[in-house]
Amino acid sequence: LADAADETALRALAARARVVVSTVGPYALYGEPLVKVCAETGTDYCDLTGEVQWIRRMIERYAAAAKASGARIVHCCGFDSIPSDLGVLFLQQEARRRYGRTASRIKMRVRAMRGGASGGTAASLINVAKEVRRNPALRKELANPYLLCIDATGGGGVRQPNVSGAQFDADAKAWVAPFIMAAINTRVVHRSNALCDHGYGRDFRYDEAVSIGRGLKGRLLASATAAGLGAFMLASAIGPTRALLERFVLPKPGEGPSPEAQRRGFFDLRFFGRTDDGRTLSVKVTGDRDPGYGSTAKMLGEAAACLAFDLPAADKPGGFWTPASAFGERLLPRLQQRAGLSFEVTG
Questions:
Q1: CA 283 from centroid of its chain's CA atoms
Q2: CA nearest neighbour of 79 among 192, 201, 220, 185
C-alpha cells in the first residue's frame, strides 16, 4: 500500500514490483509522483489515462530518466486508446500482407456502443477545461494532432482530417458526427506511427467519428449530436456552467455503471483503410463489455500482464511508449483470448 502523493512510499512500492498499474485519474492531479518514481527506478508502468496534456508533460519531464533506467511507461491502456491504436496496427499488418504496403489513410467510425458514464472520465474532462482556463495557450496545443510526438522521429507535417460537424461518410455509408474520444485516440495513433519510424508513412492521415445513420433522419441526428457535443464543451469551458455540470449533470468520481450494466455494454468499431494506389481494406474491432469499465479493466489487466511476461527488456528499451508501439501484435492474442475483444477483417 502507498499513498499516491507520498513519493517515498511509492518508491518502496515500485522497488517490489515488476509492473505498476495506475488508475488514479484525473492523472493531472494525482498521477505524476508514481510516473516519476517508476521512470527513475526502472519499474514498468501502465495506466488508462486519456489526458493528453498530462502525457506530454510526463514525456517532457521523465523520458530521459525512463530511457536511462529501462522503465517502459505505457499510457492509454484502456478504451482510450487500445481499440483505436491496435485496430490501426491490425489493419496495417493486413494491408502489408495483402498489398505489400500500408494504408496512407485510415478512418475509424464507431458503429455502435453501449456504456455508462464514468465519474473519473468526467472529472478528467472538467480538469482539462480548468487547465485551459488557467493557461489559454493550452487550447492551441490540444488542437495539434502531433502533440505527443515530441520525442519521436519527427512529428509529421501532414494536415490531418477532423470531423467537427455532421457529414456524410461514403465508406461508412452513414452520416457521422464528432467522437469525443477522437482528440485522445488520434494523438496516440500518430505517436505510435512516429515511434515506429513512421511505419504507416510520413503522409499518414487518421481521424475518428461516430456513425449515426442514413437518410434525413441520420443527417438530423448527426447534426443534433454535433451540436450537443459542442454545447457540452462550451459549457465545460465557462466557470458557472461548468459548476452546474459538476453539481447536477456529471457523475462524481467513483460513480459509474452497475455490474449488470457493465455486462450488457459493448462496442463495435469499424476501420476503413486506403493505400496510395487506391486499394481498400476494412476491419472490425469489438468488445463484449461496457467500454469504460468492463472492457477497460480487462484491457488494462492484459496490458500489464504483457509488460510483465511477454516483453523482455532486450526487445523493448525504456521510454514512453503507446500500446501499439510497446506491445505490437503480442497483445492481440491476449485481448482476443482473455479480454473479450475481437479483431476481424471485413473487406
A1: 18
A2: 185
